[in-house]
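INPUT
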Amino acid sequence: MIEIEDLVHVYDGATRAVDGVSLRIRDGERVAIVGQNGSGKSTLVRHLNGLLRPTEGRVLLDGVDAATRRVAQLAATVGLAFQDPDRQIFAGTVKAEVEFGPRNAGLRDAALAEAVAAALQATGLEGDTATKPYDLGYSRRKLLALASVLAMRTPVVVLDEPTTGQDARGVRRVEAIVRELGDAGRTVVSISHDMRFVADGFERVIVMRQGTVILDGSPAAVFAREHWPDLASTYLEPPLAARTGAALGLGSTPTDRSLIDALAGQR
Amino acid sequence: MLAVLPAAVIAGVARRLIKVSFLLTLPIAISVVLVSVFTRAGETVLFEIGPFDATAEGVDFAAQTLVRLFAISTSIGLFGMTTDPRAFVLDLERRGLSPRFAFVALATLEAVPAMVERAQVIASAQRARGLDTEGSVAARLRGVLPLAGPVVLSSLTEVEERSLALEVRAFGRPGRRRLLWRLPDSTPQLLLRALLLGLLILAIALRLTGAFPVLP
Amino acid sequence: MLELSLASYRYPGYAKTVLHDIELRLGDGEIVGLVGPNDAGKSTLCLVTAGLAPASIGGVLKGTLTLDGTPAGGLRTHELAERVVVGFQNPNTQRSGLAATVFEEIAVGPMNLGLEVPETLARTRGAVARLRLEPLVERDPQRLSGGQAQLVAIASLLAMRPRHVILDEPTAQLDPEGTRLVGEALKALADDGTSLLIAEHKTDLLDGLCQRVVVIDGGTLVRDGPTTAVFEDPELEAVGVEPPARIRLRRAAQAAGLDPRVLAGART
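OUTPUT
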């Protein structure tokens, strides 16, 4: 369980990037964090693996204060996949790149091979073990970066904008990965700008604005009409399915599926 | 020195200038002092350490050299701290410097903070994958490739896109450009530069004719 | 008019051809969308259409690029720049780093062309006005949001007064606010004869903007037609492109046996 208690993070003595956030994320939850750039999303999640330390407040991982652990130690519990794959790829082959993380986490031999194979399978890269990372196109490099974090088998997986720059197939694959992680009981926290990805794949949406949480609930709750002004204040627009459902008086229908079901139910 | 320090005070950079110049010249200063104090031929021995004699002449030479070093570093430092590099390079271009040279000079300056920021993001990403940057020396050494690799690789891939973006804005065109900018210049500044140039010529002349004491 | 005829291209040092016999035409004032899966050749096509491949990056181009009647083959890159420009997705790499203000940044292109100062000022002011950037002209180009920086990059291209503008995924790295800003700015380009080719994944963005859409897959153009026809094509998803949300919802309703006209009636 992740507990964030009254977290404040101040940059350069002046900017309050996170301004008093308290949250509890249970094991196995799939949580999306949304909000405009500068709302504090990236700052918040970087406290989960110790890259940033609180100015005030604390972050507890299963009761242990994250501030008492080194980043390298926390990496075995919380994996964080960055937005830009080219800011982390360095190995000569896909396999070596994916092995880096689990090796650091102490996996060897059979356990290592298994973790790597599973990660490559999930990201569709199983046929490219000997390929040079930069011979892969951007979409697949992004999946490679994700694979290298998945292979660490961390109970918590944090994704920073996993679908940005991805084509439709890449997005489908990321959606499948999120589903599988959830099915396996691992906690998923994802920052995203893609409201449809968020509504379809996550059970909880946290909306941030100027360092604080302004909405926190299921997609149906967050994308309901009464919250649209709040969403607009952080430059977010609900998915078309939600807007259509509201216009037709069908209640809150954040996903295509829920809209169609509501329409069918009306007949 | 007499010219540099008052100018530094006027510009408001005196403290920083002295501190930076001092730090920069310190390594050379230490070796100058050690070498000249103990090995310059001289007669007045002040004290001895083993086979080495510290002479008054040596101390005198060391002192003169240190003052000169300090004068050089503070004048260059003053220039660096009070001149806007962009204005400087563009004015050079207006006076005939090739625009490409101007661009390279400015781009180099901008490249450093960008690369530092990139390196920080890369370090964060690798640490998030378990790279230990806070542990033993051996652990940190293992981290060199995962840290340096992406810095170099991503810089190179970015270079291609950057240069394409530049070509699209006609940076490849040979010939001069008509700049929008003009550094303001005034008569007092022109007179001051003429005066300084005159003093420089005078100083060289005095030195050459031996009218000023020369080092032994 | 920009015309690409039987264009095939391979990168320097590579044996594989990445574009095959491409036929593409951009009429004056047309806004054309370019969609396709990643690695299908969208970015390469953007570079070829802008003439930078091969003029700047080398490689081998078979076929011809003609810009308003002039073959692009013999043109130097700065000569190309006056006719066709290309913008990229990363706003940071497009910043020249030479300018202290947004106005100066936009003026860099015209200055590089060796134009006299009054002409440079006129073109810069024109670009600023076209994208409504007046509130930003005094700002430091390094301190803008992603969306703002991308707008400045596009304005910097417009200041070259090109007839044709190619944009390679201009909103890929932007948040929804930045995407909205750029999308609206692009609409402003429609009215004055500049033709526009926009490569994008966000089909919703292209839906409201383009008259025509071309689809690229494996280096070949597999579709070229009016926006709605292309987006409604059932084969589109097989190629790896997702149609706009309104079409998706309509299809889902039809699949569930519902009358899609109900959806059309909803004013969102």
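end of record. Chain C touches chain A at residues 36-39, 89, 145-146, 169, 172-173, 175-178, 180, 201, 204, 237, 240-242, 245-246, 248-249, 252-253, 256-258, 262-263, 265-268 (CB under 8 Å).
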